[in-house]
Each structure stands twice: as structure tokens, then as C-alpha cells.
Amino acid sequence: MKTNGKKLVVFFSHTGENYNVGNIEKGNTHIIADMIAEATGANSFEIVPEKEYPNDYNTCIEIAKKELQSNARPAVKGDIKVEDYDVIFIGYPNWWGNPPMCVYSFIEKHDWNGKTVIPFITHEGSGMGGTDRKIASACKGAETLTGKGLAIQGKVAQENQTSAQKSVDSWLERLGFKK
Ligand SMILES: Cc1cc2nc3c(=O)[nH]c(=O)nc-3n(C[C@H](O)[C@H](O)[C@H](O)COP(=O)(O)O)c2cc1C
Q1: Do the beta carbons of residue 58 and residue 20 sit within 8 Å?
Q2: What are the tens digits of pLDDT across the range 11-58?
Q3: From CA 61, how far away is CA 64, in angstroms rounded?
Q4: Fold held by 7-172
Q5: Alpha carbon distances (Å) from 123 to 28, 82, 136, 158, 161
Q6: I need a labelling partner for 122 at 20 to 30 A (CA). Which of 15, 33, 85, 152 fits?
Q7: Is the CB of 52 under 6 A from ligand 1?
């Protein structure tokens, strides 16, 4: 696994009304993504669907469910050249044991050969939920660190950042990233 070389944090995160945390201005995964980028000196890219998910929780759930059932690939705004990086952290919320479908839209636009991919997730009880294996099959040709990704409860990311920061720091240290 590479811990040196160029690093990138790519993430999707939903703001607005979210499960167990009320109405939030910065998504739970976004908070963790920023901590990883800060600690590793990585660049950062936010996956934003062209048609953004609504703030309202129940409407968001309905749209997310339809996208999952139809295996949709919603268009995403902008892009970043993953091909220029060596180590790519990919972060997202757990949506019924899957990453939001827009994460696949982003992944499938790129060539992952030779990259090291490190998944991280926020959730409200389901943990990584096997999503790391789904990321591994989507990022063809990459070495994906399945079983070694970071799972943090969204409420902890949102409301107890000292604890979240400790989890991020010790995880990065275990993986061999030096401050
Ligand atoms: C559509 C949807 C589905 C979700 N499904 C799950 C789930 O199956 N398991 C779980 O633990 N949390 C689930 N959650 C909660 C989110 O994973 C959790 O709130 C996460 O921290 C949100 O991160 P974000 O603010 O970066 O979007 C779901 C949330 C949404 C909106």
C-alpha cells in the first residue's frame, strides 16, 4: 500500500435534514473528509449531483430509494483528475448498505489502475456494511483497502468532533500515515 505520493479525498455528503442530527449545514461525511485532508495534506473533491438531493429527509429517502432500485447513475457536477493521484480516500454515508449512487457515477468516469483506494463512511448503526467491497469492485484495477476503512457514526462526527478527530488520527496512524 502506498502512503506517500499524491493524495486525494473524494467524498459525497448530504446537508439539510439528516437522520439523528437534525438540520445540518455541513454533512457528517464532509466533516470527516476535512479531517482526513487536513491530517494527510490531501487535496479534496466533493461529489455533488447535478440534481442535488432535497434537504427534506423523507423526500431525500424517496429519491435515494428509487436511485438504488434502478441502479441509477445520476450526473455529477464538475470533476477532478483522479488519474493524477496515487492514494484516494473515498467517503460517503451508508445508505442501506450502499454508497449513494452518485458515488458510482463519479467512480465510473475514471481509470483506477494502480491506485490505492481507502474507503471511509459515516452511518447511524450499520457501520461500513460491506460497502468497501462494493467500492473495491467499482474501482477496477485499484488496491482497495477492504476491511481497513474507517466507519464513524454521523452523530459523533457532527456533535463530538474531539472524539471523531481521535478516531481519524489513530486510524491514519494504523495505516501508516505520518503527521
Ligand atoms: C437515504 C438514507 C439512507 C440511510 N440508510 C442508513 C442505513 O442503512 N444504515 C445506517 O446506519 N444509516 C443510514 N442512514 C444514515 C446516514 O448514513 C448517516 O446519517 C450519515 O452520517 C449521513 O452522512 P452525510 O451527512 O455525510 O450525508 C441513511 C441516511 C439516508 C439519508
Answers
A1: no
A2: 999 999 988 888 999 999 999 999 999 999 999 999 999 999 999 999
A3: 5
A4: Rossmann fold (3.40.50)
A5: 9, 25, 19, 11, 15
A6: 85
A7: no
